[in-house]
Amino acid sequence: MCPFCYIGKRKFEQALSQFPNRDDIRVVWKSFQLNPDMQTDPETSINQYLASVKGWSLEQAEQMNDRVTAMAQEVGLTYHFDKAVVANSWDAHRFIQLAKTHNLGDAAEERLFRAYFTEGCNTADHATLLELGTDIGLDAAEVSAMLVSDQYGQAVDQDLYEARQIGVRGVPFFVLNHKYAVSGAQQPETFLSALQTAWSELPLNVISDNDGPACAPDGSCE
């Protein structure tokens, strides 16, 4: 539901396409709920919602979203805030966690972003999530069973806990090799530089699983 996350995803992808070792990079999406207490309300426009929670006028909310729409267009995305549905994201996050178990995390993110920002779908609606799941190749019965249970809620909570531990206060937020971070929808050049730096400091790959004779830092040899 964060408009800058979809934009940031595209900019990161642009950087990754230029990275020589891109086929060796694994991208893992993490859950981060911007507003856990948000109530799903299809009758309220996103501009009305923003105006009420930010203390803005309706015109100010519309102008802000117009600016974001223009930013999205710069990276080839089409936003329709006039169709966006105010929706709690808890089940959508659980949906992503399920998709990750099938190596479909990125596909789930992409489909949810397009559904919310471009198609005006209610991403809290179970029937909608079921349709999106089958779109990306998930089993309909598995998606349905997840939605009527509390499955993957603990995985969402764990991601939120990890975010707090490393000081994430907003999204998008990219962590590379558990060491470097890029905050915000930065330009592709920034992401590319971060990728290069993180890659250059990766541990050496161990060629053999069997430990040969060696000496430890304490001077002991065996």
Textual characterization of the structure:
With 222 residues, the protein is mainly alpha-helical. The protein has a single domain (3-200), classed as 3-Layer(aba) Sandwich (Glutaredoxin). It is 50% helix and 7% strand. The protein has 9 helices and 4 strands; from the N terminus they run αβααβαααααββα. The protein has helices spanning 3-18, 46-54, 58-74, 90-100, 105-118, 126-135, 140-147, 153-165, 188-200, and strands at 41-45, 85-86, 173-176, 180-183. The strands form 2 sheets. It has a two-stranded antiparallel ribbon with strand order 1-2. A hairpin with a 3-residue loop joins β3 (173-176) and β4. α2 (46-54) packs across α3 (58-74), α4 runs antiparallel to α5 (105-118) and α6 (126-135) runs antiparallel to α7. The longest helix has 17 residues, at 58-74. The radius of gyration is 21 Å and the shape is globular.
Question: What series of H and E elements makes up the topology?
Answer: HEHHEHHHHHEEH
CATH H-tier superfamily: Glutaredoxin
Strand order of the largest sheet: 1-2
Secondary-structure arrangement, i.e. CATH architecture: 3-Layer(aba) Sandwich
Instruction: Give the radius of gyration.
Output: 21 Å
Number of discrete helical segments: 9
Q: Given the C-alpha coordinates, what overall shape results?
A: globular
Low-pLDDT segments, ≥5 res: 205-209
- C-alpha end-to-end distance: 56 Å
What structural category arises from helix and sheet content? Answer: mainly alpha
* CATH fold name: Glutaredoxin
The CATH first-level class comes to: Alpha Beta
> How many separate domains make up the residues?
1
Summarize the amount of helix as a percent range.
40-55%
Query: What do the pLDDT scores average to?
Result: 92
